[in-house]
Write a structure and sequence with these properties.
The structure is a homotetramer of 381-residue chains.
Chain A (H helix, E strand, L loop, with lengths): L3 E9 L2 E8 L8 E9 L2 H7 L4 E2 L7 E2 L10 E8 L16 E4 L2 E2 L5 H4 L11 E2 L19 E4 L5 E3 L6 H4 L2 H5 L3 H8 L7 E4 L3 H12 L5 E5 L2 H9 L4 E4 L5 H11 L5 E6 L7 H7 E9 L9 E3 L1 H6 L4 E4 L8 H10 L10 E6 L3 H8 L6 E5 L7
Parallel strand pairs in A: 12-13, 12-15, 13-14, 15-16, 16-18, 19-20
Antiparallel strand pairs in A: 1-2, 3-6, 3-10, 3-20, 4-5, 6-7, 7-11, 8-9
Chain lengths: 381, 381, 381, 381
């Protein structure tokens, strides 16, 4: 008689309900993870709204299928190991070890995998809680459940003891912020001025990265006063309310805050296409725009290749996902700076699995920053 | 009684005529250059057509004024030196030395100059043959003349003896191709597949750079069969006729030629905005587009920040001018490879100053690649 | 009748005495700086001991001459300006402005200056307080004086209002830590493990850089317990006493602290050659050693190109001075992190000019970290 | 009854003899390669002389064991495939396909493999023809045989049709030349002056890389006139005979050939430690030394951390092996430049397997550049 475990299943857009699945044994190389926390990502909100076209223009462009157990920002403890399974440092994993698993599984064999490209460019990429849905056994392919099944080949990152779950759960979105380092490859400097355009959860992770990697003046732009206030707590020195200032005024204010030149870097994390061109215009001549928020196709924009890109020498870096190599450094960075930034405040809400539907609705409201689901109700904050 | 020298003066759009100016003595730090050749650049063609808005969106955005002696792609011999004047290697220059002068003079004192940014980002940039017109003495600020006046502070690059004038005259446009190296900073590779979109003079210089710096498969796109044929002579392995293939077909052909993935790099040198979005679409996931041709504002385009940039992880590098540091390496590269590429064929026409008007018209016709003006009629090819 | 100002003159090794000089007027482009503080650098200690061979193996190798007004780590307020003089951001400077001047003046005309190399590689480099001695008028070429004379062409960096003098005085040594960023160019990561070998003033500046640019585990090695204690206050997680552990033990402890691999980066700031080879041996395979402390020739060492460099894939970066481009970012980094590190504790002693001899002796004793001289006795700590 | 195949077995130092092994069937994921050519590498010569300590100072330091089938520079045609096996571009391989296999097999699971480090840093690296000896079935782990057994997980690179075997066999040593690109990461330039210190096979591969990636003036140093002559044919403009010039004279000549400054880059490929310090001294201030030849421990040298590294701002890059990501670009680079360099002349001798002993002796004599073994006697040159 097998044990049954609860999972929050998205049966169709807008509908989440608890469902029970048998707890599987791990095949060789696989791991059963007892979930501590699983974040709600912007992509999950899109899926909840039925916006299911992902990775447009890539070899693994896809339409997400229901039913689905979402959840790819995960932290938990290992319940069972299928034989020899190593963490990212090459050490054997055992039951009880606390880990963050990679959000994706790459094939290791396509040109992208073999050429040292970021693993999320894999031509046959599979994503937990996205392409890996719960139709097929062993079903538990997302973190919104009591247990999760991690396939052989999944990269597994040990969590430092000092890093609390509510910070460790941010590891995956922190690994999406690699555009910041990539921008630095183009400009040999530090202490640069940085605009974070949109300080929702992904924007806040970018702000954390910029702050902890030694950026200079930080300028946050958002519609919500609550988010701007949090950005200030994390080091943003200039706060610009997108509800009160139009595009031209935002650009003017950024220039004003940067000695008239424009920002050295703009991290566009708004999630909407309308901020792309203003980003190009608030960056300085020779500056860099990281486009990290436009994960879903929400239509085209009009821009000017001459004045916005060429003459102005602007660099634009599109960032479509997280790198496998930055999970471990991301956790290391967070654990070394627990005393310097209020990192445990980024998770504003923690709900039990049975309230998954509420959690999704909450995650789309103004008062929420990062909302996480937790299997164990006794740990609610 | 002062000597008088001829110059081709652009009096207004579409009108060039010879005019005489007194040959000045050089002030301290200045140089009088006896011109050998001066190229006709794409910008000059725009100015000839009355399209005079330059550097849109930068601190030195400007409207070019007439009358003007154009010519910023120059090579000549020093006629007189104003005291101690050093070449780029720190050696004293003397009458008779053959040099290529930098096309621009930067102030050396603004934030861009002081922060190690490329010199053409200078907030007070002055350009020979553009912002420096011939209204003010000593007038001879462009290369379409028998002699040219080079202001104190102009960088001066000695031409290797083995490098013929008709190749040395390409040094300045070759120094505009630094987007290729900049793209390499983002991708640790070589022998990559490269599309050159538009193989006019600037595109050909990019093709030369890519070929000589060890790119792999080279794909040339152009409207003109004659240009594609020249591209083939310089190493392009795939030739795509933009007159016969629409945008979608071009993208499909590039994919086909690159194992289905798209090109690692696209160098957009077309000079028109319409090629920008197709460039984004013919590059592979994670690839780089260098936007080096949109020097003049010819209107906006519609693009998709999600599918064209973010999800696809595309990097875009806007390149608005040449770097001072690459003149010398550019000449060194050319002289080391005279036996490997038919570099002396890039200048297809050489006309004397008195035919400047014809030269400008010729430069806009299909049969011309690089057209140069020469003061000395006995050297015509 | 001209005003006379005091300066501490090093007349010969081991002897400092006050001397008066007339206060000059600034020539066009020059600035008179009223000194707030001037640090005592490791090089100054060498000069005090008569070890005067500098920049061995470079075009500007030299023997320092006495008498000398030392002091190249400077902060002060402008007393007089010779006409139009701009700060590093291109803004006009006026009397009363607080600045840090660059420690060196480059010629702007040699190959190094013209090729975008760091300014301290200039073939005709002049250094305040070193090559520029006080034999020649206007004499005041070092910061250990009431006023300092800054030659035309000296780069001048405005100090942010919030940055106290006792932190601003560290700008120059902070600009020497650019080896850290250079090492990052070779390894696309952050949160890496870093050994700082020697945590005297230069080592502490490297520690500050590593901490504020998001390094991970920091390991400090020093002979002095007081220095190790300060390193701990700045974020070092492992402290190794070089008096108690021999070279082999230090290497073993670094491995232990880094999962058995060795450190990702070693910043060798000891100032003695004996730490160079142990640095190569405590770095991991593929790691980077920054050699930033061996400014004076103190003899050769024996090393193994096979096992220490080649097979192990070690990168070594020699850093012989500070870059002009990092003064401004260094101040920006410091001012943004005043609340996160006890930066005002790095200056442990502040003495008036008349106690310069005592200050030099103190600076060589164990209890001192950075010792500074100050003209105004009322500001002593 | 199984087929038997010949292999040249190194039974002990100095002794090679033919031995027969059964031709195995490939396990799933494995490939049987019918050998075309297999090069004799410097390491093989060391093994032949009994110098068997490899990878000193790394986690996979080892003592090579006999008997051994050497041969890790391989090209051949696939004879049999164990099911689904993909090439480096993700395409299924079939019998008859011509490939170059990677020389090493990495574990894919240690920290180095998981952190995006070069694959030869793998903690559990296995090398064909080195650590993989022929004691264990299926024995055929080196290329000096009629057939070779390639383990599952070995990276396999398809050879372009136009690339002849005698050039394709150089792919592996060409993949060792990645120090050149790594050096470029530190210095944003091209057309730089490059010394190749030692133009044996590895030095010649570096010369090819430098030439084809657009280096400028190339300076070759060697003991052998024949090698210098070949270097000239590949583009070296200055040839220095190490038999006629001592270390100081070599340094002086390099300075002379580089405008007095020293070379921008020195590629030390001599295979002996004595050239390391002269390399540091013939590079310019701020230049880079790639140490790519000291693969075997031949003792220590004396160097000066102050003058040779720190003050002079020299960067040193140790390169201990080849990267997996550069096999494919290396072949692409070679095939695109068959018309520009006499690449087919680098293999000077081709001997059949039964003359393996002679081949090893020949490979150590002056007249040989690259010597290869070939199973099929009808193809001898």
């Amino acid at each position: 008689m097998s044990t049954l475990v609860d999972a929050a299943v998205m049966r169709q857009p807008g509908t989440l309900e608890l469902q029970r699945f048998p707890l599987p044994d791990p095949e060789p190389g696989a791991v059963i993870l007892e979930m501590s926390m699983s974040g709600i990502c912007g992509t999950d909100k899109h899926t909840f709204r039925g916006e299911t076209r992902q990775y447009a223009g890539t070899p693994h462009e896809r339409q997400i299928q229901y039913p689905l157990i979402c959840g790819h920002e995960n932290v938990g403890r290992i319940a069972a190991v299928g034989g020899e399974v190593l963490d990212s440092a090459g050490r054997q994993l055992r039951a009880g070890d606390r880990i963050v698993p990679a959000a994706n599984v790459s094939c290791g064999r396509c040109w992208y995998c073999r050429s040292g490209q970021p693993y999320y460019m894999c031509e046959r990429l599979e994503d937990y809680g996205n392409s890996l849905n719960c139709v097929h056994a062993p079903h538990l392919f997302g973190g919104w459940a009591e247990y999760m099944y991690l396939l052989p080949g999944t990269q597994l990152f040990r969590v430092p003891d000092e890093l609390p779950d509510e910070v460790a759960v941010l590891t995956e979105p922190m690994a999406v912020t690699h555009g910041f380092e990539r921008a630095r490859r183009l400009n040999d400097t530090f202490a640069e001025s940085v605009v974070i355009f949109g300080v929702g959860p992904l924007g806040m992770c970018h702000l954390v990265k910029a702050r902890l990697l030694g950026a200079g003046h930080l300028i946050a732009i958002d519609r919500l006063p609550s988010r701007l206030a949090m950005a200030a707590d994390f080091g943003a020195g200039t706060l610009l309310a997108a509800t009160e200032l139009d595009s031209g005024e935002l650009i003017a204010r950024v220039r004003e805050a940067t000695g008239g030149r424009g920002a050295d870097m703009v991290l566009d994390c708004s999630g909407v296409p309308d901020t792309f061109v203003p980003s190009l215009r608030m960056v300085r001549v020779g500056g860099t725009v990281v486009e990290a928020g436009a994960f879903v196709d929400m239509g085209p924009v009009s821009m000017n290749p001459n004045a916005d890109i060429c003459t102005k020498n602007v660099s634009v870096l599109g960032i479509g996902g997280e790198t496998a190599e930055t999970y471990e450094p991301a956790m290391e960075l967070l654990v070394r700076n627990l005393d310097r930034l209020p990192l445990d405040r980024l998770v504003t809400h923690r709900l039990p699995l049975e309230q998954a539907q509420d959690a999704l609705e909450l995650a789309q409201r103004d008062e929420a920053m990062k909302v996480v689901l937790s299997a164990r109700s006794d740990q609610e904050r």
